[in-house]
Amino acid sequence: MTGDRTHSCTCGTMRWRIAHAARGTHLVCYCEDCQTAARFLKHQTTRLDSDGGTEIFQTLPMHFEFLDGRDHLAVLRLGPKGLLRWHAGCCGTPIANTLPTPKLPFVGAIVPPGVDGYGPITALVNTAPAARPIRETGVLGAHLSIIGRILRARLSGKGKSPFFDDDGTPVVVPRVLSLQDRNAARPN
What we know:
The protein is of the alpha+beta class. It has one domain (6-179): Metal Binding Protein, Guanine Nucleotide Exchange Factor, Chain A, CATH 2.170.150. It is 20% helix and 26% strand. The chain has four helices and eleven strands; from the N terminus they run βββααβββββββαβα. It has helices at 32-40, 44-47, 139-156, 179-185, and strands at residues 6-8, 15-18, 25-29, 54-59, 64-68, 73-77, 84-88, 94-98, 107-111, 123-125, 175-176. A hairpin with a 6-residue loop joins strand 1 and strand 2. The longest helix has 18 residues, at 139-156. The protein is globular, with a radius of gyration of 15 Å.
């Protein structure tokens, strides 16, 4: 596997890294929610591929490190019970998705389409909203892989996350989108 796993937001204020040794699942998600988040953050051209897919590297939060600008970290939810969608508050660049609790250690790092360094894409998921017909592949393997990682992290106590305080609250208060804002950003 080649490639640098250091990323920055589009304005350069924030930088983060995913450990080179971190194992994970490299997939593309075409769901309406991933598309809506990218559109709301005005990053549909930098984080969505031509079919509306978001490249994600699913790994453990302990492999994720902020290098610069962590004080600009922001988070939104598309609804009151949605995923936490972390982004750069300075320019809106999507960074990662997490579950709303660190009790299930998981991070879906949003990576630019076609980025090197994460191995081959092994799953295409939630493909119905894609711009063209795309067949889902690797869904079961992606689910089993992340469940296995989560269980190993829980059992080993290696579930520390840079997205949550020690008491389990997000390091930033999430902004929950109104129904009007969410609907305005939905893909056509």
